[in-house]
Amino acid sequence: MLKEAIATRYITPLREGGSLPGLVEADDHGIYVIKFTGAGQGRKTLVAEVVAGELARRLGFRVPRLVALDLDPDLGLGEPDERVQELLRSSGGTNLGMDFLSGALGFDPLAFEVDPAEAGRIVWFDALVSNVDRSWRNPNLLRRQGELWLIDHGATMIWHHNWPGAEKSAARPYDASDHVLKPFAPDLAAAAADLAPLVTEDLLAEVTAEIPDVWLSGEPGFDTPDDLRRAYALPLLARAADVHERITGIEGDK
Questions:
Q1: pLDDT for 96 beyond 50
Q2: How far is it, in rounded angstroms, from Cα 89 to Cα 158?
Q3: Is 182 helix (H, G, I), strand (E, B) or coil?
Q4: CA–CA separation, 172 and 180 (whole Å)
């Protein structure tokens, strides 16, 4: 399971996107971006963040550390925005925190260069988890001390919003025509050769074990949280072997 921490101070909302994440301090003295169970797609978005983020970490990508943040819904009583107040009231209990990367800059494809090897690895990973949210309009990449960090994976594994159709959805090609790293000639063949063998049943079991039980309980069609964990792992295991052959929108050798 994710490391647990308790939010002790609500600092400010981060007014980017529709989910209104916030900035909090926790009892471990960390500063975290908090994503709420009461926002958007709720706990499924947080599950996607954990699975994609922890898988990315184990594959060698830089991602902020994730923690399970316990939130008292009265913590932000001084926040004047009614939308934020409502979000806090509806999100008591276990939420998701990710390390706040002080000094990081949003990635600008016109200002920064990315080598084909790194670009290929990121595009391959996004294809694996079916990330629909790494476009030039919203890169979800940060640059810190000259290195790229991957953030915001709530829009991955879209098949988990309709489990009866998950197998068919997970088999679809990945359209990378709008990917922010397309201009950098991503080397997909090298990425697949390096990364695909690492995506094993054991690795995915380790990744899905990080998901808090409370975000998995009560899912229709699944008797236990572990049954649902296996359902998350299966499409990823199947995709890893040949997803590079089903990436469209990028010219060149795959």
A1: yes
A2: 27
A3: helix
A4: 20
pLDDT at position 253: 43
Rounded Cα distance between 173 and 155, Å, is 16
Handedness of CA 177, 182, 183, 187 (dihedral sign): negative
- Report if pTM > 0.85: yes
136 CB-near residues (< 8 Å, 6+ apart):
109, 178, 180
Radius of gyration (C-alpha) of the chain in whole angstroms: 18
Residue with tokens 């400010």: 12
Going by their DSSP bridges, the two strands 31-35 and 93-99 should be labelled as antiparallel
Task: List phi, psi (to 5°) of 5.
Answer: -145, 160
The values of phi and psi at residue 220, to 5°, are: -55, 135
Residue 32 and residue 35: Cα distance in Å, rounded? 9
pLDDT in tens, 129-143: 999 999 999 999 999
Sheet holding 105-106: strands in order across? 105-106, 141-144, 147-150
What span, in angstroms and rounded, lies between the C-alpha atoms of 98 and 213?
Answer: 18
Q: In angstroms, how far apart are the furthest CA atoms of the chain? A: 55
Task: Please give the mean pLDDT across all residues of the chain.
Answer: 94
Start-to-end C-alpha separation, the chain: 36
Q: Which residues contact 101 (CB under 8 A, 6 or more apart)?
A: 64, 142, 144, 149
